[in-house]
Amino acid sequence: MEPSVLPCAPEPRLSYEPVPAALCALGSVFGLVCGCFGYRCFKATMFLSGLLFGSTVIFLLCRQERELQLSLEASAAVTAAIGLLCGLLTVLLRAVGLFATGLLLGLLVATAALVTVLPPPPSPWVTAGMLLGLALLCALLALCWPKAITILATAAFGAAVVVVCADYLAEGLVLVAHITARLQLAPARALCWHEWLLLSAWPVLSILCVLLQWRVTASGFSHRDAPHSRWQRPQQPELKCRQSPAPPEGTHRCRTPR
Predict the structure, then answer these.
(1) Closest Cα partner for 111 from 54, 31, 175?
(2) 189-216 in b/e burial notation, b at 16+ Cβ within 10 A?
(3) How far apart are the C-alpha atoms of 95 and 101, rounded to whole Å?
(4) Are 162 and 35 in contact (CB under 8 A)?
(5) SS (H, E, C) the chain
C-alpha cells in the first residue's frame, strides 16, 4: 500500500525556465526598490502608475474585443504605446499621477479584501463595486494627502511584486491563479498553509516598507521640492543698482544687466 500524499505538502520546483526566472529576479529587485524608495523617486513612481494603469486597461480591452482579432504581439505593441503615453501624462500632470497612484492602492486593497474574505461575493457586481469604490476613494485621498498615499501605494505595490515573484519561484504562480479565480467568482480550491504564509507576507512587507520610507528614505523630503526645469523656472529680471559717488538728494541710478 502506497503512502498517501498530503494535498498541502509543498512540492519544490526542480527546474525553471531561464527567461521567466530572470524576470522574476529582476522583478524582486524592482519591487524592493519601489517599496523602499517609492516616494523618494516621485517622478518615476508617477510614470510607473500611469504606465501600469494605461497598459492594463488597454491590454484587457484588446483581449476582450473579438472583432479586432489582434495577435498577442499586436496587443502588446498597442499596450506598450498607450502605457508610455499614460506614463508621460502622469509625469507632466502631477494631479493625474497622484490620482493613478491612488487607484493602484485602492485596487490592491480591494483585491486583498476579496481574496481573504471567506464567503465569496454573491454577484460580480459586488466585486466590481468594491474594486471601483475603493479605487476611487484612495484616488481622492491621494489628492488630499499625496505623501502619505504615495508611500502606502509604493510600499504595497513593491511588496506585492516581491510576493508574486516568490510565488512563481516556489509554486509556479499558484497563488496568482487562486486570486484570479476569486476575482472572477470561479471555483477555487482552499489555500494551503504555505500559501497562506506567502499571502500573509504581503502585509508584513508592506508595513516594513512604509516604516522604512516614513522614517528614513522619505523623511524630510517633499515632492514639491523637486527641481524645476529651466523652462518651468520663473525668470524675473534683476536690476543691479549702484549708488553714484555723490548722488543728489533722494535719487539713485539703476542699471539693467546686459
Answers:
(1) 175
(2) eebbeebeebbeebeebbeebbebbbee
(3) 10
(4) yes
(5) CCCCCCCCCCCCCCCCCHHHHHHHHHHHHHHHHHHHHCCCCHHHHHHHHHHHHHHHHHHHHHHHCCCCCCCHHHHHHHHHHHHHHHHHHHHHCHHHHHHHHHHHHHHHHHHHHHHHCCCCCCCHHHHHHHHHHHHHHHHHHHHHCHHHHHHHHHHHHHHHHHHHHHHHHHHCCHHHHHHHHHHCCCCCCCCCHHHHHHHHHHHHHHHHHHHHHHHHHCCCCCHHHCCCCCCCCCCCCCCEEECCCCCCCCCCEEECCC
Q: How far apart are CA 189 and CA 158, in angstroms?
A: 27
Tell me the residue type at 82. Answer: I
How far separated are the first and last CA of the chain, in Å rounded? 98
- Matching residue, cell 496568482: 176
Q: What are phi and psi of 90, to 5 degrees?
A: -70, -25
Q: Dmax over Cα atoms in the chain, in whole Å? A: 116
pLDDT in tens, 1-39: 344 444 566 666 657 777 778 888 888 888 899 889 988
Which residue in 123, 208, 125 sits closest to 163, CA to CA? Answer: 208
On whether the pTM is more than 0.85, the answer is no
The torsion angles phi and psi of 255, rounded to 5 degrees, stand at -120, 130
* CA torsion angle 135 141 143 147 (round to 10): -110
Q: What is the pLDDT of residues 49-61, one digit of tens each?
A: 888 888 888 877 7
